[in-house]
Amino acid sequence: MTGVGGQGTLLASRVLGEAALAAGFTPLLSETHGMAQRGGVVTSTVILGDLKSPIISPGEADLVLAFEALEALRALEYCHARTLMLANTAVIPPYPVAVGQVSYPEVSAMLAVVARQVGGLLAFDAGALAREAGSPLAVNMVLLGALAATDTLPVSAADLQQVIRDKTNPRFVNANLSAFEMGAAAAREPAHWLRRPAA
Amino acid sequence: MSELLTGQPGERRLFLGNEAIARGALEAGVALAACYPGTPSSEIGDRLYEVSRTGRLVFEYSTNEKVALEVAAGASAAGWRALASMKHVGVNVAADALMTLAYVGVKGGLVLVSADDPSLFSSQNEQDNRLYARFAGIPMLEPESPQEAKDMTLAAFVLSEELGLPVMLRTTTRVNHTRGVVTLGELASPPPPGRFLKDPFSLVMVPAVARQAHARLLVKLEQARARAEASPFNRLEGTGPLGVVASGVAAAYVADALLELGLKDKVTFLRLGFTHPLPEELIARFLSRVERVLVVEELEPYLEDSLKAIAQCRGLTLPIRGKGAGLFSRLYEFHPALVRRVLADVCQVDYGAPAPLPPAAELLGRPLPERPPILCPGCPHRAMYYAVKIALRDLGVEGIFPTDIGCYTLGLLPPLAMADYLICMGSSITTACGLSRASGQKVVAFIGDSTFFHGGLPGLANAVHNRHDLLLVILDNGTTAMTGHQPHPGVTLTPPDYPGQPVDLAAVVRALGVEQFWRVNPLKYKDTLAATKEAVQKDGVRVLLAQAPCPLYVARLKGKRPTARFQITGECGECRHCLDYLGCPAMHVREGEGRRQLLIDPELCAGCAFCVQLCDHIRPVKAK
Ligand SMILES: Cc1ncc(C[n+]2csc(CCOP(=O)(O)OP(=O)(O)O)c2C)c(N)n1
Ligand code: SF4
Asked: Any idea what the CATH number is for the domain that residue B249 is in?
């Protein structure tokens, strides 16, 4: 899971990890703390299956949740030809872009590049759905909902929702759960699949 | 209640490595913990602080790492189990105490957690602190996972007490910041009060006593070696003519690689977790069983050099390869594929990696914009840097900026570009002394409040005493922001019911003999600029104390964001002054219709009201 400091990638990986634990797996997560959280790239990884290595090497992620459009493209480094990527198309301009030193690449061009390389790409504006659900910070929940709907993991939507109820801030549980639902609905929208994974 | 205190023995929980260490300490009945924060160690202290509010242990955020280790040493001398945790470079600060504490020995178990940072995710170097265990002569355990981190913490307390030596738990970022499944053990009950028993002729390190103590240390180390031979943390797995040795997270990469390459039963794998003193007999047995050896360890060739020495002593001439042979690097952390590739090469099996994708920049036909970390919107450090920049520009003076470590080090990046020289915590003041004396140039040094108490006090006393010439700007945001907002002696922003007694930073500065002193709120531009200009033009030691709380922490403590918002009214964007001098991430330009428009993002604006003081185009608006 990769995004920008403050987007809640750590919480998303934690929720997935707790749900996997509840489902009887032995998950391993790695997290970025420290300096990068001040607006830099924040990446966390989740490993299911009985491995001992806590991190994922370049080219070896089977599933990528990208919380921002440019970071989706940057995450290509971690993908292989069968990777499934779920990407938020919303843009958070990095500082050099914001001040006009460099331009931000066209979102559609970036997604087209990703779609040509990976095994599957689901892309939609998760930021808009999070706002609609009542919490602009719930992009992580939208993406988890979409992930559950793709049915790629041995962790069910119900497991994930239970962890959201138990472990996320009580003030935002309802918004989080509706964000999760909206993400699931977005994954069922054929137009959002820029590339369908081979069966 | 702290999550660390919940759950039944036998329950499986998902813990960060640092939480596992804290839990292990609680299962060991730790009575006192002292730490100075630093990535990747900080969560150990932060979790134990939360637990300490229940009265189960005594916890303190110490002024620096030397203080933390010495406080722990005192508690241990009175019979308590004590823990000191710090990042790797913190052990440098504590090293003076550590080297002789090994002579003095301990009574209650004392565990020193050293959190190393291969790849320098948040550090000024990537030194390998395993060398400290050998240097000081203390036992060392190296976990590879959160579960092992908990088990080893518990074992380290027992070992420390049995041997009468401090024990180092040496972790790396990939253990500290991995979240993994940990099986809970029994929590120990809170300890009874300790009692110190006098024994000056073994506890007071004057030369005559220390000579004996050194000899005693060597005896204890031999006892420790016997324990390493029998330790369940050191184990031989599999059989085969190739021997592989690994410790820490590298052992996890080896285990996975052997599995994935189908080599599990074809290789003799020696996993070492108790890595100082090394189990020489076990290693000799291993060496005699294999034809050649591959050593897999991050950073320095600590195991590799030791194995070569052991082989030499036993007259063994088999090849022992690792960093010496260039198979692995002394730089940066490893990752699973890197270890798998070397193992596949050495064993001449198919590596079986998926074909790499072309680089994203190549596919897109242009570089990807970088995303550097940056000072938050509303950060008072930015405002202070701005005032210094403008003051020097107006006075036509070039400034040299020795800086220090904290959020404010992000001022290195353009457009602020307010950092010229940095070694380690506290070095701003002292290097400023040498720089100004040697160059005669105008030197303005920057230091944060936590760093000032940590390592700045001796330097400032030195500057006054030796009549140096510098302007020191103390960036006092009331907290240790960079590492997660921990308190420090001069703290003004504290977590709820924090028991520490605040020390008045301004009074300390004055008491150190500083006569030329200014105090400003950097978010008040006019006053700050005037004071800065005055201070820059004087000679001798001058201190400008810039006080304004860290807004990120204020928002977190209050649970809400500030409400005032600012907008740009009318056409604006051609002068670029704010972009070129201020660099607030809430400001951005939109290009269009042949001109640029500057905008403030209402979601990002922190309402600090600094920019309105600089530009007539910026006006307050009502928040929604
Ligand atoms: C010897 C040592 N200990 C700890 C650290 C980790 N560390 C980096 S900056 C910092 C303190 C920052 O606090 P402060 O000086 O108040 O600046 P702020 O981040 O609040 O701006 C710490 C503890 C370090 N780099 N070196
Ligand atoms: S955390 Fe506080 S001190 Fe650090 S950059 Fe943000 S506002 Fe500034």
From this structure: 3.40.50.920
* Shared domain check, B393 and B289: no
Cβ neighbours of B181 (radius 10 Å): 19
Question: Which candidate from A57, A82, A94 shows the least CB-CB separation from B335?
Answer: A57
Domain made up of A2-195: CATH architecture: 3-Layer(aba) Sandwich (3.40)
pTM of the model: 0.98
Of the pLDDT bands very low, low, confident and very high (cuts 50, 70, 90), residue A34 is low
Provide the pLDDT for residue B623: 57
- Those residues whose C-beta lies under 8 Å from the C-beta of residue B351, and which sit 6 or more positions away, are B261, B340, B341, B344, B345
Note whether B178 and B68 are same-domain residues: yes
- The atom number, within ligand 2, closest to the CA of B406 reads 4
Asked whether residue B105 falls in the same domain as residue B188, the answer is: yes
Neighbours of A42 (CB within 10 A): 25
Best to test chain A binding among B14, B482, B574 (most A CBs inside 10 Å): B14
Instruction: Assess whether B238 and B197 both reside in one domain.
Output: no
- pLDDT for B30: 98
Residue B354 lies in a domain: no
Report which secondary-structure segment, H or E, holds B385. helix B380-395
Same domain (yes/no): B481, B574 = no
Whether residues B76 and B200 fall in one domain: yes
CB B22 within 8 A of CB B4: yes
Is residue B408 in contact with ligand 1, taking CB distance under 6 Å? Answer: yes
Residue B255: list chain A partners with CB under 8 A: 52
Q: B552 CA distance to ligand 2 centroid (A)?
A: 6
Contact A152, A115 (CB under 8 A): no
Is B357 inside a domain boundary?
A: no
Examine the domain organization and report whether B538 and B570 are in the same domain: no
The residues lining ligand 2, judged by C-beta closer than 6 Å to any ligand atom, are A 38; B 375-376, 379, 381, 407, 477, 481, 550-552
- Residues in chain A with CB shorter than 8 Å from the CB of B588 are 93, 97-100
User: Does the pLDDT value for residue A37 go beyond 70?
Assistant: no
Q: What is the ipTM for the molecules in this complex?
A: 0.97
3-state secondary structure labels for all residues of B434-446: HHHHHHCCEEEEE
Higher pLDDT pick, B84 / A49: B84
- Domain of B123, in residue numbers: 3-229
Decide the pairing of beta strands B618-621 and B565-568. antiparallel
DSSP B573-620: -SS-HHHHHT--TTEEEEEETTEEEEEE-TTT------GGGT-TTEEE
Mean pLDDT, consecutive 10-residue stretches, chain B (624 aa), reads 91 97 98 98 98 96 98 98 98 98 98 98 97 98 98 98 98 98 95 95 98 98 98 97 98 97 95 98 98 98 98 98 96 97 96 86 97 94 98 98 97 95 98 98 98 98 98 98 96 92 98 98 98 98 98 90 80 87 90 84 90 92 66
B95 plus B15 within the same structural domain: yes
Domain boundaries, chain A: 2-195
Pick the atom of ligand 1 nearest to B123's CA.
Answer: 25
Taking each helix axis from N to C terminus, what angle separates B17-27 and B42-52, rounded to the nearest 10 degrees?
40
- For position A178, what pLDDT does the model report? 98
CB contact under 8 A, A100 and B579: yes
Query: How many structural domains compose chain B?
Result: 4
